[in-house]
Amino acid sequence: MSDTLARALEQVLAPVLGEVSVEDLQPLTGGASRITWAFTAAHADGRRALILRTGAGDDIHAGMELEALAQQRAAAAGAPVPHILTADNSPAALGNPYLICDAVAGETIVRRILRGLDDAGRSRMLGQCAAALAAIHRADPDGIGLTAPDDLADWRSRLDEIGDTTATFEWAFRRLADRRPDPSPMRLVHGDFRMGNLIVDGSGLAAVLDWELTHIGEVYEDLAWFCIRAWRFGAPETLGAGGLGSVETFLQAYEQASGTAVDRDAFRWWLTVATLRWGVICRHQAERHLSGEQRSVELAAIGRRVSETEWDILDLLSGGGPR
């Protein structure tokens, strides 16, 4: 298969780089929505390390062309993202829609990243994450086909589709619906901005990856998702923003980078929504195992985290949570 894919890649890259030879094609990950490959393109001007992302289209994830356009808009606004060479929603060339970008050197495994940072490194990285989000939110979202989903309603529907719920989830959905803050301006949002979707090198944040959930929404969605417990990877609550620093420090850094104020009450509402979202995802992953769709100890283990998210939701709704 890899030889066939390599030859097809050479045809795809020819209009961009000229005649090329694809070498060292290796799969990196195989998730539910995207498969990632690393390879080298040898051409007249030298050798270039590239990344291929492929995945069938669906009604949840952005198409490859949209994902590429959103990254290009974010890059124009100053966000660190990989340079895109080409993208196509058609499966004709490679068997699935695809996106090809430059490889970015660095680390992506969060526990290694956090172990390698001292206090100064964490502080620098936190500021870089805030600045990257501010740049993403400055980007022009118009005219590229982005949708504007209702986060709370969408996750309500996802839970209903499973056909199972918990008392905590039900109470949270109702409380959140009753207490929804006034809407803020709609911006380009990443949709999955978290430590696991960043590349980090010796200078800090090198690139923001995995744009398949990008859409138009409120900036609070990205800010809150970065601060849920799951993306702290065991770091204490005092490092509630991605395991790097306090939530308040993160919000202040974002305010400075974006030149806009962050309503703390609105942020808390969105942080509760983000935690509830993670809880529904955990329940969905468990259902994949329990239903027999995909028997997996990992999926079953993720399902056990539903109770953890219930605790966090109740804590947030009672005025607790990370600071």
UniProtKB/TrEMBL annotation:
Residues 25-268 form the Aminoglycoside phosphotransferase domain. Pfam families: APH. InterPro entries: ACAD10_11_N, AGP_Transferase, Aminoglycoside_PTrfase, Kinase-like_dom_sf. It comes from the Bacteria. This is Aminoglycoside phosphotransferase domain-containing protein. It comes from Mycolicibacterium vanbaalenii (Mycobacterium vanbaalenii). The lineage of its organism: Bacteria, Bacillati, Actinomycetota, Actinomycetes, Mycobacteriales.
